[in-house]
Amino acid sequence: MMAVIEIEGGVPLEGSIRVSGSKNGSLPLLAASLLCDGELVLHNVPWVVDVQVLCELLPRLGVRVRRGSNGTVRLEVEDEKPNAAPYELVDRMRASICVLGPLVARRGSARIAQPGGCSIGPRPIDIHLRALEAMGANVRRQRGEVTAKAARLKGAEIDLLGPNGPTVLGTCNTLSAAVLAEGRSVLLNAAREPEVAELASLLVSMGAKISGIGGPTLTVHGVPSLHGAKREIIPDRIEAGTYMIAAAITRGRVRLENVRWEHMGGTVDALRRIGVQVEPELFGCLVTSNRRARAVHLETAPYPGVPTDLQAPFMSLLSVAEGESSVTDTIFPSRFTHVDELNRFGANITVKKDKATIHGVRQLSGALVTGKDLRACAAMIVAGLAATPVTTIREPHHIDRGYECIEEKLSALGATIRRVED
Ligand code: EPU
Predict the structure, then answer these.
(1) Is the Cβ–Cβ distance between 23 and 406 less than 8 Å?
(2) Which atom, in ligand 1's list, is nearest to the CA of 50?
């Protein structure tokens, strides 16, 4: 038997929900436990499947992981010998690569199964590896495995710009390596995503010397060791954006608690251009929509632009906008598995290269669809909330990788949504 998500759409979402801690803000911080002597305590960690996978991998690398209440996770290294991240875990989550930098920096070697491409497109790690080589590591790729070795890394000047912008996890890995390297490193074209700045701030509280946090150039003076620290994970700006879009497509009124307004810039700008009202509140925001969405041309961009992780949910919203919209993904140019599925709801979307053209329709009709990856699955749920009478989403397990209690949260806003065995 396979589970599906069923939604009876067409009901405006109303009420208030709390946004969870950030998935992508948790992963590199959890991996930073490999770097420190002493205990790392993280609060507000969302218990989503990607976090769970990393919390299965870390014990295989000698880290004791203890989960407390309210999203607290305590991590402490017990055994420094293991250095291998096995295929079965890396294959479940490509972001497992975030243990690479910490392992090489602290243990002098790492063996990691080479992550393959996925449904959002190719996922190269060449920049991660080049950075470690620039710091003196000996990197080899063999039989689907990457091995990197260095007795002690040496500071270097490293450019993190790829063909589609700076690499987020590449910046995290390089930073996590540079903090224990000998001498000074300069990271050019560093990713400026808040999740990277959070890692940098955590590392500083562990004793690292980093300047330029939040900007495109990070300067690091290596230190011999790092100590334990405590930190609270930032709210998930992608989860927040998804609920904002869900409020908009159902023409509802939703209050989100635990939002960092300053992290929402590109998303809020896009929503306002679409005609959605979004206003900041003390620790959250209020999203209201009482009219049909306006068509817009959206392009994803590195932070603070429209995040690629919200491209699919935005497309659901634009599929019912008045007029012709377009969506271009400059970060992952073939991240379009949701397009054929949205067309099954009666949307009218065509794709040429990295650009989707969307002719808005008045109403989506409930359909049988498949959520092909995490954010595509979020887009199916958003569309299903607007579609009548009933939508059935196959392969809903993808959503559990990144959204905590999504059925409960949407139900609290008045949606009729449930997971059932098919
Ligand atoms: N790239 C390279 N070489 C590299 C690394 C990346 O060419 O060595 C390219 C990629 O192919 C892509 C671009 O650079 O075109 C950006 O990729 P990036 O490395 O920034 O992606 P990532 O760090 O692997 C993180 C998020 C993704 C999010 C991207 C972009 C985590 C755990 N993952 O991935 O989140 O889409 O940044 O913002 O932080 C998701 O949550 O659904 C998700 C996929």
Answers:
(1) no
(2) 32
Contact 27, 176 (CB under 8 A): no
Helix (H, G, I), strand (E, B) or coil at 266: helix
Q: Please pick, among 118, 172, 285, 405, the residue that the annotation labels catalytic.
A: 118
Any idea what DSSP says for residue 46?
-
Q: Which residues contact 406 (CB under 8 A, 6 or more apart)?
A: 381, 399
- pLDDT tens-digit readout, 208-245: 999 999 999 999 999 999 999 999 999 999 999 999 99
Q: What is the pLDDT of residue 171?
A: 98
**pLDDT by position in tens, the chain (length 422):** 689 999 999 999 999 999 999 999 999 999 999 999 999 999 999 999 999 999 999 999 999 999 999 899 999 999 999 999 999 999 999 999 999 999 999 999 999 998 776 788 888 999 999 999 999 999 999 988 999 999 999 999 999 999 999 999 999 999 999 999 999 999 999 999 999 999 999 999 999 999 999 999 999 999 999 999 999 999 999 999 999 999 999 999 999 999 999 999 999 999 999 999 999 999 899 999 999 999 999 999 999 999 999 999 999 999 999 999 999 999 999 999 999 999 999 999 999 999 999 999 999 999 999 999 999 999 999 999 999 999 999 999 999 999 999 999 999 999 999 999 87
Give the span between the Cα atoms of 335 and 407, in whole angstroms: 25
Q: Are 316 and 249 in contact (CB under 8 A)?
A: yes
Per the annotation, the verdict on 118 as an active-site residue is yes
Cβ–ligand 1 contact at 126 (below 6 Å):
yes
Here the tokens at position 230 are: 């405590």
Distance CA 334, CA 328 (A): 10
Contact 218, 170 (CB under 8 A): no
Site to probe by mutation for ligand 1, drawn from 331, 334, 373, 403 as the one with most ligand atoms within 8 Å of Cβ, is 331
CA distance linking residue 209 with residue 224, whole number of Å? 11
Please name the helix (run of DSSP H) or strand (run of DSSP E) that holds residue 210, with its range, or none: strand 209-211
Helix (H) or strand (E) holding 201: helix 194-205
- Alpha-carbon separation of residue 61 from 37, 56, 149, 203 (angstroms): 15, 9, 16, 20
| Strand ranges inside 152-310, DSSP E | 157-159, 161-162, 165-166, 184-188, 209-211, 218-221, 226-232, 253-257, 277-280, 284-288, 297-299
